[in-house]
Design goal:
Layout lengths: L8 H5 L12 E6 L2 E6 L23
Antiparallel strand pairs: 1-2
InterPro entries: Bacteriocin-like
Organism: Elizabethkingia bruuniana
Protein name: Bacteriocin
């Protein structure tokens, strides 16, 4: 934690997040630095597990 760079307020404003949400049951594979949408029940093209977001237990996703 000692080597963390301090972020300036102007740099924070430049961070852009988000994008189109993935459908339920889909995750992201990182192939050569690119995000590739992949179903969570399948392996990525590089045979790794996709990064998937799971719904919180106790919430209703309908």
């Amino acid at each position: 934690m000692k080597n963390l760079k301090k972020i300036k307020r102007t740099e924070l404003k430049a961070i852009i997040g988000g994008g189109e949400p993935l459908p339920d049951g889909w995750g992201v594979c990182y192939i050569k630095g690119e995000q590739v949408p992949t179903p969570c029940d399948q392996l990525c093209p590089n045979k790794m597990q996709p990064t998937c977001a799971w719904m919180d237990p106790g919430t209703n996703n309908q």
